[in-house]
Amino acid sequence: MEHNSRTSPTRRGLLRTATGVGLAAFGVGYGAASAAASVGATSRFDLSQPSYDLFRDKNLHSNRVQQSFAFDSVNKRLFVAAKRLDSPESAGDLCISQLDFAGNYVSYMHLNGFGHGVAFGVRPVGSTSNLWIETDANGNGYGTKLAFIGYNPGTTVDAASQGFGKFQPVSGATEYTCSIDPVYNRMIVRYHKDGAKHIAVYDLADTDKGDFSSPVAMFTPPGIAGTPQGYTLYGSYMYFITGDGYSASNPDPGNTYITSININTGAIAQGPTLTKAGSTLVYREPEGLAIYRTDAGESRLFLGFASGDEGDRRSSIFYKNALV
Question: Closest Cα partner for 315 from 52, 51, 50, 65?
Fold first, then answer.
């Protein structure tokens, strides 16, 4: 395990990341503090309300099942993570497809040996979309660090590269994924430690500097039945999606459930709630959650599904917008 650095990246360092140099020069992560302040209470999405289409059955650069997705709210970009075609699950080779908001394919980037792609976030710096995503995959294909890396269309980057920042936010943790709340400007990190999954939440003002020393919330989420398929954060609530693809034993309307969790208490606020979004899709496996706020100021909780036939998997994305 790499040692935690106490050198704080400067704003100049963050801007260097946008040019592809990365935060690596400033060291690897910080140990998380044991105490955490409470997060101010916010509204939450009502999971019982209807979902609406963003798009259905759109092509990705990789024809494999999407794993997650994330928005660049500033530059109006959507990124979808899937495994690389013809790469084994254990390798952790990812293909990131950039789409427009109508689901039209724009470009791709390959990230070899990065991880599974359960969740990731995008942090724009000027016109560059920077990915906060797992890296340094273990033998099971899951990332053991978080990376901060600029999206560069048409390129391939290996996890062993020194050209981007790598971080281990929590001392002693072995796996990491993350998601970003672009409305309340926070990052949620899910990590594995002491045989269980835990949650830490940070202000983007800190993570922008590579500083994970002051989490605003830390908790162990309650056990939720079903196959975990992604999570995200909005205000003082975490959202968690579970379920499986359609099959003879899991026909329409399927078993996709969404749960909201209060990050101050770690208790379930609503759910698990069955969602029938995209119920007529072929295959329909839940894959990913993300937050976006429209230019008109409407906050949306987005739900992703892998759809389509084997060998020709597609991306389908829906959203909820009712707050309580």
Answer: 65
Neighbouring residues of 321: CB distance < 8 A, sequence distance ≥ 6: 45, 52, 298, 299, 300, 301
Contact (Cβ atoms closer than 8 angstroms) between residue 81 and residue 133:
yes
Q: Kind of pairing, strands 156-158 and 105-112?
A: parallel
Give 247-303 pLDDT, tens digit per residue: 999 999 999 999 999 999 999 999 999 999 999 999 999 999 999 999 999 999 999
DSSP string, 305-318: EEES-TTS-EEEEE
pLDDT in tens, 211-255: 999 999 999 999 999 999 999 999 999 999 999 999 999 999 999
Helices marked H in 77-208: 204-207
With CA atoms as reference, report the closest residue to 115 among 153, 77, 89, 96: 89
Burial label, 223 (beta-carbon count in 10 A; 0-12, 13-18, 19+): exposed
Please state, in angstroms and rounded to a whole number, the distance separating the CA atoms of residues 170 and 81: 24
Closest CA to 84 of 106, 100, 68, 61: 61
State pTM to two decimals. Answer: 0.89
Reduced to 3 states, what is the DSSP secondary structure of residue 14? helix
DSSP state of 33: P
Query: 66 is written with which tokens?
Result: 């999407």
Asked if residue 63 lies in contact with residue 115, where contact means CB atoms within 8 angstroms, the answer is no
How far apart (Å, rounded) are the C-alpha atoms in residues 59 and 314?
5
Task: Give the pLDDT confidence of 171-181 residue by residue, as tens digits.
Answer: 999 999 999 99
Q: Which residues contact 203 (CB under 8 A, 6 or more apart)?
A: 185, 186, 187, 214, 216
Task: Find out whether the peptide bond into 286 is cis, omega within 30 degrees of 0.
Answer: no
Q: What distance in Å separates the CA atoms of residue 66 and residue 45, rounded to the nearest whole number?
A: 24
